[in-house]
Amino acid sequence: MQAYHVADSSGLIKLDAMENPYTFPTALKEQWLAELTQVELNRYPNPQASELKEIFQQVFSLSSKLELMFGNGSDELIQLLVMAVAKPNASILTVTPSFSMYKLIAEYVGVNVVEVPLQQDSFALQMDMLKKAIQEHQPAIIFLACPNNPTGTLWPKDQLEEIIKQATGLVVIDEAYSPFAAYSMMSLVERYPHALMMRTVSKMGLAGLRLGWMLGNRQWMDELNKMRLPYNINTLTQASAAFALQNITVFDQQAKQICQQREVLSNALHALEDIKVFPSEANFILFKVLSGTADSVYQNLLDNKIIIKNVSNNDLLDNCLRVTVGTEEENQTFIKVLSSAFS
Ligand SMILES: Cc1ncc(COP(=O)(O)O)c(C=O)c1O
Strand pairing partners for 215? Predict the structure, then answer.
């Protein structure tokens, strides 16, 4: 096995990891720092992060019938879920291409991974193949990222519902990119007890905090909570996230700006003849290099101090690259360098 590789990005325009390019406004930063001075670092954190839970319930208008759990990033929640179902011959199911951590974690926990390919180019769900795979492998968990990373696709809700109805175990709907998507699958989680929803504060602008959250039926969440390490959410994260959520309008505004920039970036990419652009409901855009290779385009950008993600190692992503939507200035620099690579 290989450790999850994170490329060194120091000194580069960073468009590789779907981070929000904007930070807190200065006035808010000062208020936040003032709150942090009240934190008692000599004490262990609130073990259930109960105050933070209440704030989440209010801000996101979560159903009181559902229970909430936090993880040290949603990565930790994925790990917890997979460990919870790990027994001989257990399997998880996901689609390919998708977020790599589902497979990576399952592999190191010793759980089988069933991958159903998405439709070439449209990246639509292949419903017949999925149903067949569910019947054959009876997966303990189905992971579906909505919108999907790295394709940016948001699948229709009725297809998700169909999968939930066919499922023999849990269905985890990973909405890491919900701040940028046209719709959410939340109503399905309210309707089906074996459907869980996972989100994160990373993409909305707080990747450094490492805070993911999962929502679902109380009985399931009580079981999963047994796997959670005590104090998994540190005090500084709890205090900072509480402060940020009380100022959620700042992040909503930033998400709007990112969606506008996504449109501008997508149009600029469409204008380049040597590129095929895929539609995106997230804060990144997948594109295919039609003349030359993704590797050389990636290297050329890197030589010009811009880092994006080379995702061309998947059969369905031949010659594909993924760029995160940055600030207007970063996007313009990226487009300028990219266009010059083809001229
Ligand atoms: C679909 C999806 N889920 C989860 C994550 C991880 O989120 P976190 O930063 O909360 O661990 C990512 C990160 O890229 C992602 O693409």
Answer: 68, 197
Bridge partners, 117 (sequence order): 96
Residue 94 Cβ < 6 Å to ligand 1: no
The residue behind tokens 């900072």 is 240
Contact 177, 149 (CB under 8 A): yes
CA 311 to ligand 1 centroid distance, Å: 16
Other Cβ atoms closer than 10 A to 278 = 20
Tell me the pTM. Answer: 0.97
Model confidence pLDDT, tens digit, residues 30-47: 999 999 999 999 999 999
Please state, in angstroms and rounded to a whole number, the distance separating the CA atoms of residues 203 and 199: 9
The H or E element containing residue 198 is strand 195-200
With the most atoms of ligand 1 within 8 angstroms of its CB, the residue from 16, 103, 104, 149 to mutate is: 149
Locate tokens 């009725």: which residue? 158
- CA–centroid distance for 295 within its chain: 24
